[in-house]
Amino acid sequence: MALPSIHRPGDTMLTPRPRAFDALYEQMEQLANAAFASTQTEMPWAPAADVSETDDAYVIEAELPGLKKDEIDVSLHDRELTITGEVKERESRGLRHRKQRRTGRFEYRVYLPGDIDAERVDANLGDGVLTVTVPKTTTEKDRHIEVKG
């Protein structure tokens, strides 16, 4: 079963959008943030992430380059996985000509469609990618029942 790809908080698309639309969505998000976000609180952005499913687990891989493990919070409520944190503004080395790397608060949410084993969730950060493995519950589907009597 394929999982929906959720790129931004509030995105309810059931299938991944074409990559060609990413720049358009990014520009629309920036315009909306500029128009509606207050100067004191900026809307969180969502890191790029892949969600896949194996026979025994859901695997979420989120790109978080430059962050340390204590700067990332991963939580699970019911079947919704949330990854949050903040990328701090780095000091500029000389005159800055272009700024494309995102800073500020980020939030990524994904709803997992099947039953999960919340006690065995594992999160690892390596090479700028956070990998969260959420095991599925193990339930016997078929079972032979002995007739007694």
UniProtKB/TrEMBL annotation:
Homology family: Belongs to the small heat shock protein (HSP20) family.
Any Pfam family: HSP20
Name of the protein in question: Hsp20/alpha crystallin family protein
Species assigned in the record: Actinomadura nitritigenes
Start and end residues of each SHSP domain: 40-149
InterPro entries: A-crystallin/Hsp20_dom, HSP20-like_chaperone, Small_HSP
